[in-house]
């Protein structure tokens, strides 16, 4: 424990953290993005690579962020500063905390607009506003929904208000209490939708599509997409997990907690696929529907289903809750920093942040209508927020965190905080030094278009040899020998 740490509220239980962190990870990325990415990249082969990437990149980075948060017991800025000071390093490293906090706020500024689509479509499903005879009609409804600034602004404002209302109540009474019913409720609704899918006539095809491994569908593009999604789906490098980690009780195992969150996040993503694809296949639609899969293809499928309106309502309630649990996590870093450093109440910090968020998100919302012509270098304000966070800030922040933990800070701090057996700690150290940074660099290089990365079917063998050589070299180093010796 560092001497600067102040008493800090904690989750009532480890389960509270698991639900909150899973809620952060299980957002539109799992229910909206994962199914259509799976559809675009060939099904089971993509899922398999995604699971490997979760273990190789996502879990080590997440463990590192939680360890930073609990060790520093503060917002991303304060936690990183305290941990690096404890190791005798420059406080300039706290810039990583600033970038993480800013990144989370910027993501939320356009995320509330996307989350507003979920709430808007829930209302349309309830009120009969999704009637159409074909995909073209659904496209027209989606476009009209975005072209009306009052309509789109209303729903994004509603998401902002709901988020700040929950966060303003506090960690236990607000966040933990809310996710304790939203997350189980989301899973129950997914199970109901999967239950319907079993009898829809398309479940067998959906199961084969998700879990049949076909090496012919394993493209370079698909592998890179799986690697990128594995990193981003866990809400890494956005300040959310680090801040949630600062509320984790001292006795809770970071490794078991991280694996629990990663497993729950992946399970929900797969359940979403089993809920969505049977409906798609039963109605003769293509699983390669892209981003419009949920907002264009599914509403059309619900119309053709018995009790389609009921299942459509259940689906968009679930989607709205997933969006809300993620938005709560992304603003918590900013609220936490204001409470810790500016001497204001949590409620004041939440609503003050909400006002600024509303102003910025309004500019993002206008990119779809009144501000459609306001571009810089060919990008709207909405696009710039997405581009800067996903292409630059998140990869750089994640890379900085693992390199800081792996090479700069005293290993004793993380050995104590993680509480792993010597060999497991050595494995974690190897992953954050080599495998995770390599994965993040691959995402970074490909996303920026610096180089076109191609992998043949021999790539696993080449990667295995590279990892083996690196591991042998690391085992020979005195530092790791001391780690193995405990």
TrEMBL record:
CDD domains: SLC6sbd_Tyt1-Like
Pfam assignment, any one: SNF
Keywords: Membrane, Symport, Transmembrane, Transmembrane helix, Transport
Record field: transmembrane: 12-32, 44-63, 95-119, 152-171, 183-203, 223-247, 259-281, 301-328, 349-372, 392-409, 421-445, 457-476
Compartment list: Membrane
Presence of keyword rRNA-binding: no
InterPro entries linked: Na/ntran_symport, SNS_sf, YocR/YhdH-like
Highest taxon, organism lineage: Bacteria
NCBIfam families listed in its UniProt record: Na_transp
PANTHER family named among the record's database cross-references: TRANSPORTER
Family of this protein: Belongs to the sodium:neurotransmitter symporter (SNF) (TC 2.A.22) family.
Protein name in UniProt: Transporter
């Amino acid at each position: 424990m560092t001497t600067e740490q102040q008493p800090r509220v904690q989750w009532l239980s480890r389960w509270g953290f698991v639900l909150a962190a899973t809620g952060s990870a299980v957002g539109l990325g799992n229910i909206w993005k994962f199914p259509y990415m799976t559809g675009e990249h060939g099904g089971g082969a993509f899922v398999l690579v995604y699971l490997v990437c979760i273990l190789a990149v996502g879990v080590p980075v997440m463990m590192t962020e939680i360890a930073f948060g609990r060790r520093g017991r503060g917002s991303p800025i304060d936690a990183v500063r305290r941990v690096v000071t404890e190791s005798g390093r420059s406080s300039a490293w706290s810039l990583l905390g600033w970038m993480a906090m800013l990144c989370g706020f910027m993501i939320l500024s356009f995320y509330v607009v996307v989350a507003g689509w979920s709430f808007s479509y829930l209302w349309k499903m309830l009120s009969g506003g999704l009637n159409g005879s074909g995909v073209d009609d659904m496209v027209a409804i989606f476009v009209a929904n975005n072209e009306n600034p009052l309509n789109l602004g209303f729903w994004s404002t509603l998401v902002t208000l709901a988020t700040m209302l929950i966060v303003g109540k506090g960690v236990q009474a607000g966040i933990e209490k809310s996710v304790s019913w939203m997350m189980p409720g989301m899973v129950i609704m997914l199970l109901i939708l999967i239950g319907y899918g079993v009898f829809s006539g398309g479940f067998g095809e959906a199961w084969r599509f998700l879990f049949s491994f076909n090496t012919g569908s394993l493209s370079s593009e698909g592998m890179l997409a799986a690697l990128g999604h594995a990193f981003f789906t866990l809400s890494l490098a956005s300040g959310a997990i680090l801040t949630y980690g600062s509320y984790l009780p001292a006795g809770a195992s970071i490794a078991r907690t991280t694996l629990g969150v990663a497993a729950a996040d992946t399970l929900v993503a797969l359940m979403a696929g089993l809920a969505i694809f049977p409906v798609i296949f039963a109605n003769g639609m293509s699983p390669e529907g892209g981003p419009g899969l949920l907002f264009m293809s599914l509403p059309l499928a619900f119309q053709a289903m018995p009790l389609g309106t009921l299942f459509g309502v259940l689906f968009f309630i679930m989607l709205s809750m997933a969006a809300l649990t993620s938005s709560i996590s992304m603003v918590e870093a900013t609220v936490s920093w204001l409470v810790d450093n500016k001497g204001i109440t949590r409620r004041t910090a939440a609503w003050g942040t909400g006002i600024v968020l509303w102003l910025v998100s309004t500019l993002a919302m206008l990119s779809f209508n009144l501000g459609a012509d306001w571009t810089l270098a060919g990008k709207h304000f909405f696009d710039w927020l997405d581009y800067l966070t996903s292409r630059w800030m998140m990869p750089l922040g994640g890379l900085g965190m693992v390199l800081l933990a792996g090479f700069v800070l005293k290993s004793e701090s993380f050995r104590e905080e993680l509480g792993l057996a010597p060999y497991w700690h050595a494995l974690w150290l190897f992953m954050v030094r080599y495998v995770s940074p390599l994965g993040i660099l691959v995402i970074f290089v490909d996303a920026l278009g610096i180089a076109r990365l191609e992998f043949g079917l021999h790539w696993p063998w080449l990667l295995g040899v590279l990892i083996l050589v690196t591991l042998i070299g690391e085992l020979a180093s005195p530092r790791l020998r001391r780690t193995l010796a405990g």
